[in-house]
Amino acid sequence: MSMLSLIPFLIVMGALAVLSACFSAAEAAFFSLRRQDTQRLATFGWTGRLASYLANRGEHLLTAILFCNLLVNVAYFTMSSVITLHWQRQGNIQQAGVFASLSILVLIFFSEMLPKSLAAQRPVASALILAFPIYMAVRLTNPLLPVLRGIAISIRRVFWPGFKPEPFLRVRELEKAVRFSQEAAAVLEDEQHVLENLVQLSDLRAEDVMQPRTEVRIFHRPVSPPEAKAAFSVSKYLFIVEQEDEAFTAAISSRTLMRAAQRTVSADEPQPNVLPASDQSNTTESEGLDSVDLAVWAEPVAYVPWNVTAAQVLQTLVDEHRDVAAVVNEYGETVGIITLEDLLSRIFTRETSRSEQFFGRRPILPVQPGVWHVTGLTSVYRLCRYFGLEHPEEASRTVAGIFQDQLGRLPKPGDICRWGPFELRAIQVGRRGVILAELRRCDHAKETGE
After folding, report:
1. Which Pfam families match (predicted)?
2. Which of 140, 160, 240, 428 has its CA 20 to 30 A from that of 266?
3. Could you give the domains of the chain?
4. Which helix (H) or strand (E) holds 387?
């Protein structure tokens, strides 16, 4: 075999090295994409949509990249071995050793380290460039995926029959870890409360943190500036429902209107003064401005089921870039609203509750030794934390729910029910159920003769 006859082998090795570099760069690029990068890719034409499609199928993508890269590397070293053995047979041992070493270094540096470093720095651009060839590789390996998965499962069952996946960290365990870290002075006091509140989001359901629909002021299109001004005096959001089915579809925040006003003012256009400021001039409420429909600045809401956790609601709002989520029940009816500010307030505020938001009072208020006043919206989870009790496995999620479950009807003033070691007595009852109840320990109730 002459030197000229080795040229085709060298060309093939160069092509294989380029392919290996592409697969290495794709691995680094696609798995360096953030969620917002994946969403932004979909706006770059068909290649961007292809890249976004691949990024959202991480398991198949990784299997295809690793499998194809393995085949390419095996073929590369096969070509390298052919040339090395040829020189060895001719007695050129030194040349064979140098060539084998250089071929390995070229593959490591130019096909692994360099492309991965460049792709990790520019993941979006790299994903756009490599989207089509990687998509073809995924399509080619799709028929092999069931076979590879079956081989992996068989090997695991033969060599590790007792293998069990590591269980997810439970919320209670994370709470203990937070307490231990605080006792070890690993975190500051404020950080301790933030961590505890974050953990609580995984233990609360959407219905526990939502604003009930009955307590939310709603509007139909069009929305006039005077209506918005009155709404913003008590809330930071204005909620819009459709005339046909009374479904929540959009929301307007005072922050959104403020940004819109700033953009309009900077463009030298007239803008109605609808922001909720106490020093606004009455001249803005002229007849012409009152006809402006502020619903044009409304933003769509996200939709979440009533039984998901508050942490999942927060993740949904972040993923969909929304400020408001409408909570729907199993019939598709909107039963409440959760805003991003509500969730952030729960994280960064030491004590926050719906009772304070709607009734202007604390959810649990001591009135005398062994006696407390609690609102109907007070969650069972909050009561358990306050009194250091284990969370019971029951359907009731609030104090009002405890009354309704045990009585089988809406309670009346004076109705009494039991909850754990406590006795609940309805004090104030509104049209929709308990507004205020008296909570006392059962032993204290016996001592007082009640």
Report:
1. CBS (PF00571), CNNM (PF01595), CorC_HlyC (PF03471)
2. 240
3. 3-159 (no CATH), 174-201 (no CATH), 206-348 (3.10.580.10), 354-447 (3.30.465.10)
4. helix 380-387
**∠ CA 358-215-425, rounded to 5°:** 60
pTM, full prediction: 0.51
Alpha-carbon span 33 to 57, nearest angstrom: 13
Residue 350: the pLDDT is 63
CA gap 51, 48 in Å, rounded:
5
Residue 431 CA: distances (Å) to CA of 208, 228, 398, 449? 20, 27, 17, 30
CA 420 to chain centre: 35
Pick from 205, 208, 209, 200: nearest CA to 178: 200
Q: If 0-12 CB within 10 Å is exposed, 13-18 middle and 19+ buried, where does residue 400 land?
A: buried
What radius of gyration, in Å, describes the C-alpha atoms of the chain? 32
Tokens of 409: 């009807």
Cβ count near 34 (within 10 Å): 11
pLDDT at 80 over 50: yes
Binned at pLDDT 50, 70 and 90, residue 7 comes out as confident
Q: Is the dihedral of CA 381, 382, 386, 387 positive or negative?
A: negative
Residues 417/407, Cβ–Cβ less than 8 Å: yes
Alpha helices in 160-300 (DSSP H): 171-183, 189-201, 206-209, 225-232, 254-266, 287-290
Task: Name the nearest CA neighbour of 356 among 248, 192, 215.
Answer: 215
Q: How far apart are CA 45 and CA 52, in angstroms?
A: 11
